[in-house]
Amino acid sequence: MLVSEVIQNSIHPLGLETDLDEVFSEDYPDGLLYVPVLDQQRFLGFLSLEDLDSDKEINETVGQCSLETTDLKVNQKQHIFEILPLFRKAGIPVLPVLDDEQHYEGVVRLDSVLSLIADSFSFQSEGGILVLSVAAHSYSLSEISRLAESNEAKILSVLVETDPFTHLNLLVHLKFNIPDLSRVVATLERFDYNVVEVHHKSELTSIDQERLDQLMKYLGI
Asked: 45, 148, 178, 207: least buried by Cβ within 10 Å?
């Protein structure tokens, strides 16, 4: 999953001498907020389409506008997980893609990256989700996986972040291949894992179903 899979090189970049009256937001893909501006093949910054109307009132060319600039850039060979933090640092949902000689090749948009992630891995698979709070020094995915597999559940994907409340623990988001995680939760808690969130479809046991049926009969439902 490389930047080369989500690069957009069909967006026509602007030059400094481009007349603003020739620039129309309707000519660009839906959701695109910034258009790259080049000097030859050197990336200079982005022209904000949101500010285009006000820019036209006081400026004549792209070069007279204030551009959104960033020192952050990406390469087509980078993995998309590497570039996700760069969007936050840049503060804009688009980044320039440059080659090894720092020549402009295209742009990568945050929404395209997120769409690729959502359509890939196990996000489309059915199954339950657990969130564990685990001390960073004792985190072991292999141990968690072993306990899950003892209940015939397999981990399909993992996302790990620092717990914002303790800063010492990790929040481990686990996607499983089964919808009911009741047994997995019970096992993890028996081994002193702190389960902070459970998102699943619990299946009623035969005893639970019998009790529910009796309750419904009693209520006349």
From this structure: 207
